[in-house]
Amino acid sequence: MYVFSTSQKRVSVEFVGTDKVQEKLNNFNELASASVSYMGVSSIGAPNELNSLVPNLKLLDLTGNLFSQWQTLDGKFVQGFNTLRLLNLEDNHIDSWDEIVKLSYLRSLEQLHLNKNRLKHVKYPSNLSPDGPIDDAAAVPFENLQVLLLGSNDIDDFSSVDSLNLFPSLRDVRLSDNPVADPAKGGAPRFVLVARLGKVGILNGSEISPRERRESEIRYVRLVMGKIESNDQEEIRRLHPRFAELKSFHGIEDEKPTSSISGPQKMASGLISITLKCVGPSMGEKQPLTKKLPATTTVGKLKSLCESFFKLKDIKVKLFVEEEGCPLPQPVEEDTASLMELGIGSGATIVVDEES
């Protein structure tokens, strides 16, 4: 039998009897994927009920429901689901990371989608001691998790970002639309996140190239060097766990004045090469300029220099820095901050625009 679709194409339709429908319903144990999205579900039911019904499930989509917590047998960990690889919990009501920790021992879990929840913090459960129903003392939390999507939550602390380095297999992370990843809300630009996340290869859907990683890490080290006010190594390690490692890896020396260098030689050693590129609609067509400037040049001073270099009159300048991996240049807004404090070093490109 055929019916016509809305585009007037013939579509084959097969009528089946109740026996065939019942046969399909009796074979839930063969089901590999299930989607129960936007159905108002708030619980998976009694412990192990779903697992026993669909023991071979590989993908479970629970997007847009009312989950806020997991019901478990002992209140600690979700068990079973030994074949589950992807769990989608986007757009639910989860506000406690403790509920996510209950998923730590889903051995096959590779992707966990938690976008659009209410999470404020992330912490790798490294201090768990499997007991009770988890009888494998060698079990590793989130052992095979490769993709963790945390976009559009309320994460606002760098300790949560740093904690992601402890996930043993994590390679793909989304942090966009969180306060910690929004410079306008006091969060970090992309290069800081790239530098702090040492093992991640994809951030916010964009692959991190070897060049971007190197430039981000060097810029991050310079940023930290320009801002640290204490020589307390423990405090620096707490606030910037990868700083010492990256500083050593990239061979970045402390910028200390030396009495053996003076005059022009000393001045030249503190210069960085910056490319300035005009894009403002009222600025006219101007060729990019490459200038050597002191690393201590402030953003406010650089704006004044740009007005002079490009002969800009009665135009209020706004600066951006181009970063690999970012679709748009990132604003540079702290007039009193120096280029060194912002992690901007030689080879950087500054986009010169005008205030709207």
Number of domains: 2
What fraction of residues sit in β-strands? 15-25%
Helix content: 10-25%
> End-to-end span in angstroms?
63 Å
**CATH architecture descriptor of the largest domain:** Alpha-Beta Horseshoe
| CATH topology (fold) name of the largest domain | Leucine-rich repeat, LRR (right-handed beta-alpha superhelix)
CATH homology superfamily name of the largest domain: Ribonuclease Inhibitor
Count of alpha and pi helical runs: 10
The level 1 CATH classification of the largest domain is Alpha Beta
Radius of gyration: 27 Å
Model regions low in confidence, pLDDT < 50 over at least 5 residues: 256-269
The biggest beta sheet reads: 8 strands, mixed
Structural class call reads alpha/beta
If you average the pLDDT, what whole number results? Answer: 85
The SSE order reads EEHEHEEHEEHEHEEHHHHEEHEEE
Strand order in space, largest sheet: 3-4-5-6-7-8-9-10
Number of strands: 15
Tell me about this structure.
β8 (172-174), α5 and β9 (202-203) form a beta-alpha-beta unit. It is globular and about 85 Å long. It has helices at 18-25, 49-53, 97-101, 158-163, 190-196, 210-227, 233-239, 243-249, 263-269, 299-309, and strands at 2-4, 10-12, 33-35, 59-61, 86-88, 111-113, 147-149, 172-174, 202-203, 206-207, 271-278, 289-294, 317-321, 330-332, 348-354. The protein has 2 domains: 2-218, Ribonuclease Inhibitor (Leucine-rich repeat, LRR (right-handed beta-alpha superhelix)), CATH 3.80.10; 268-354, Phosphatidylinositol 3-kinase Catalytic Subunit, Chain A, domain 1 (Ubiquitin-like (UB roll)), CATH 3.10.20.90. The strands form 3 sheets. An 8-stranded mixed sheet has the order 3-4-5-6-7-8-9-10, with no helix packed on it. A 5-stranded mixed sheet has the order 12-11-15-13-14. A two-stranded antiparallel ribbon has the order 1-2. It is built from 10 helices and 15 strands. With 356 residues, the chain is of the alpha/beta class. 25% of the residues are buried. This is Tubulin-folding cofactor E. It comes from Zea mays (Maize). It is found in: Cytoplasm. Keywords: Cytoplasm, Leucine-rich repeat, Repeat.
